[in-house]
Amino acid sequence: MTNPIDRDALSELLKEPNAADAADVRHFALDLDSFDPSQKAEVAEWIRRQPVPVIGVGEDNRGFAECVDVQAENQDQLNQLVRAIEAQPKACAILVQVTRVTSELPTDSALIMESLGYGTLQGGEEFRDWLAGYREQNPAKSQAVVDDAVAVDRNESRLEIRLNSPANRNALSVSMRDGLTEAFKLVAMDRSIEEVHVWGEGPCFSAGGDLTEFGNMRDLAEAHRIRQARMPARYLAQQAHRYTFHLHGACVGAGIELPAFARHITATPDTWFQLPEIAMG
């Protein structure tokens, strides 16, 4: 069981420039209710220096929760978070490092940082282990070729974009990515398009990245270059105020990350969201 660090114990850790390295730990848990409001700036700066997740524990009525990476209100939530971190420590560490930095960056710069973090993880053993297990449990099958993974229809100043690959739950395949990029670029270039509505055909909006394509790119630097050239979010974010996403069913990974850029979102009662990337290493 993880015992959260109180204000007295933290006062000793504050003396160490890199407490995670000195203590050889994969995470820290802080007893938020033990701290004094006057310590907030000092604690926040200490957290930013740590290369591992910092969990806040407690109800925290002093505003410290906004400084930590994630908050646990009780011991059960803390134990669940610790198990996830211990299972994929490198993925969790890079997640919090990227998240802390990108929250202070312009969108374009944040997308570059996110891509670099993603590429780093794809070169790691945690992702390789997950990929090997996935391929063992899901032998390669021939995929149905979709001529128009993205359908675009215009009616005067209104543009409708439909994710049109229901057979694979509108997974973000290369063809889907490129189709969305072209559609979003059109919006960015054509000021006469006043409103854009994005839908998904079939039982769900999108099940996220196409797992059958994961791990196919061996040159991770080239993969990063392609993402920067063909990333749909880059063009969507530029004109977010014109977009409305209409969600239903599963919205997994990119299936919620893309809609999150839009000014407006609608969702049917059966809509659910999941970000499974940590479990995938």
Secondary structure elements and pairings:
Blueprint: H1 7-13, H2 19-23, E1 28-31, H3 40-49, E2 54-57, E3 70-72, H4 75-87, H5 89-102, H6 107-122, H7 125-137, E4 150-155, E5 158-163, H8 174-189, E6 195-200, H9 220-230, H10 232-238, E7 243-247, E8 250-252, H11 254-257, E9 264-267, E10 272-274
Parallel strand pairs: 1-2, 2-3, 5-6, 6-7, 7-9, 8-10
Antiparallel strand pairs: 4-5
Helix pairs in contact: 4-5, 5-6, 6-9, 8-10
Summarize the structure.
It is built from 11 helices and 10 strands.
Descriptive tags:
281 residues, alpha/beta, 2-enoyl-CoA Hydratase, Chain A, domain 1, 2 domains, 5-stranded mixed β-sheet, 3-stranded parallel β-sheet, 11 helices, 16% strand, globular
Descriptive notes:
This is Enoyl-CoA hydratase/isomerase domain-containing protein. The protein is of the alpha/beta class and 281 residues long. The protein folds into two domains: 7-87; 150-280, 2-enoyl-CoA Hydratase, Chain A, domain 1, CATH 3.90.226. The protein has eleven helices and ten strands. It has a five-stranded mixed sheet with strand order 4-5-6-7-9, with helices on one face. It has a three-stranded parallel sheet with strand order 1-2-3, covered by helices on one side. A two-stranded parallel sheet has the order 8-10. α3 (40-49) links the parallel β1 and β2 (54-57). α5 packs antiparallel against α6, α6 (107-122) packs antiparallel against α9 and α8 packs parallel to α10 (232-238). The two termini are 24 Å apart.
